[in-house]
Batch of 4 targets.
Target 1
Amino acid sequence: QVQLVESGGDLVQAGGSLRLSCAATGVGFSFVVMGWYRQAPGAQRELVATIRSDGSTNYAASVEGRFTISRDNAKNAVFLQMNSLKPEDTAVYYCNADRWDDIASTYRDYWGQGTQVTVSS
């Protein structure tokens, strides 16, 4: 059974940095896309950044230039380096991974349990 386990969330002051990690276990295939989403209290879950297996990336406008996503395909892991953190970055950050199911001809979607990031002003 596939599990995504996040780590690295913490309380940090504005202007500080954090590095989130997500490791996938129980995986016998490659993920097409891996990424990070976040959900602040009372808000909808939103995209932070994604990275495809070829290394191409996509960022939300609010984090572009401050956050960097990377992945280790051999370890089925994805990382998020967050710099110049702002109080509005406070949220639960979720790891996401998608794979193509050849048998069902559809994408399969996996989520981690989330890790809390709190940025104090």
Target 2
Amino acid sequence: QVQLVESGGGLVQAGGSLRLSCAASESIFSIDAMGWYRQAPGKQRELVAALTSGGSTRYAESVKGRFTISRDNAKNTVYLQMNSLKPEDTAVYYCNSGYYTGSYIADYWGQGTQVTVSS
């Protein structure tokens, strides 16, 4: 069972940037897909971005053009680069690993990291 640990969250002003990192406890080379979800207070958890081992990506409409997901297999780490942040991006962000069968299915989760964007 892979363990995932997120880092890089924090407080940033609107328009700023943050890069989240997700370190896996084992090699991610063979993991079919990895992604990031977020959950804002009072809202359902939503998929932000997913990345397959083949390099295909999927983004929520609300973050397209602003967020970029990437992975470094040598470091067993997945990243989420977040630019032009908005107050509505405020949420707890969760890294996960899973697989892709037409849609991304997450089966292992990290504990989450808080991102707060001030206006």
Target 3
Amino acid sequence: QVHLVESGGGLVQAGGSLRLSCAASGILGSIYAMGWYRQAPGKQHELVASLTSDGSTYYADSVTGRFTISGDFAKTTVYLQMNNLKPEDTAVYYCNELTRGNSPWYAWGQGTQVTVSS
């Protein structure tokens, strides 16, 4: 059974920074990609950043230039450095392994709340 544990969220003022961490356990086999999603109240999960095993990255337009994803797939960990945070970044952030179709593979973990005050 796969467990995804996110941490590092919190309350920060606009312009501030946070670093999120994700530890995944129970994943068998090699990982193709991992990603960070967020879900704002009343909205669906949104993929904000992903990292593939060959080092390729994807960022949603809304976070490009402000967020940086990194990770160590051998340790099944992934991080999200978030700089210059904006109130619209407020959401619960989740990590997940991605399928080759960029869909989340496993059930969601508990997520970590990020709240950005103006």
Target 4
Amino acid sequence: QVHVVESGGGLVQAGGSLRLSCSASGTLIGAKTMAWYRQAPGKQRELVASIVNSATASYSDFVKGRFTISRLYAKNTLFLQMSSLQPEDTGAYYCMAQFIVGPRGDFWGQGTQVTVSS
């Protein structure tokens, strides 16, 4: 069973930076896609950024130029460097690891809270 754990959340002032980390353990198989989602109170969960295999990254418009997703493919480890944070970036950030062989399916972590104060 794949176990996904996020870390790195916290409280930061507007304009500040945070780096989130995610590890998907329990398998030696590399996830095809890993992604960050976020959910603000009272809102639906939304995609922040994703990366396929070890190279192809994509971002939602609201984080382009501010956030950078990166990955250690061999270790199923994912990062999200967040800069120029704004209060609207506040929410729980979730990591998702998608496997298409072996432990097929999408696996989610419990989330890490990011709070940006104005």
